[in-house]
Design a protein that fits this description.
The protein has five helices and three strands. It has a three-stranded antiparallel beta sheet with strand order 1-3-2. Helix 1 runs antiparallel to helix 4 and helix 1 crosses helix 5. It folds into two domains: 75 residues, Arc Repressor Mutant, subunit A (Orthogonal Bundle); 43 residues. The protein has 119 residues and is mainly α. Helix content is 71%, strand content 12%. It is elongated, with a radius of gyration of 23 Å.
Length: 119
């Protein structure tokens, strides 16, 4: 189960690592879109663009449906939620560590100040 979850996160973050794929996801956030329309703003062949679509599909971030010769893509929210949950858990962990460090440094500064005032 843990390995499956880690594999899913790896795929999501790998898919998000490329600007073309992030831009594609931004476009799809406004609603489903035909692959040729998604590819239009990018300076690449349709074949090259479809490699990005496949990476997004493999990560589970989008689903594509073919009707005749037209392929329409849509977002799948679940993998985004998992990635967000993972990042938020790390944020909570680091915030707790930074808070503890801040408390420690404040206490240390207080101790040093008290020692200086005695002398």
């Amino acid at each position: 189960m843990v390995n499956s979850h880690a594999h899913e996160l790896d795929a999501v973050f790998a898919a998000l690592s490329h600007a073309v794929r992030r831009d594609t996801l931004d476009t799809l956030s406004r609603g489903p879109c035909v692959v040729s329309d998604l590819a239009a703003p990018h300076r690449m062949s349709l074949v090259g663009f479809i490699k990005h679509v496949r990476a997004l599909e493999a990560a589970g971030l989008i689903v594509c449906e073919k009707e005749g010769r037209t392929v329409t893509c849509s977002l799948v929210p679940r993998p985004f939620r998992k990635a967000t949950d993972w990042m938020e858990s790390r944020e909570r962990l680091w915030n707790a560590r930074f808070d503890a460090l801040s408390r420690h440094l404040s206490e240390r500064e207080e101790t040093v100040s008290k020692r200086r005032s005695r002398t």
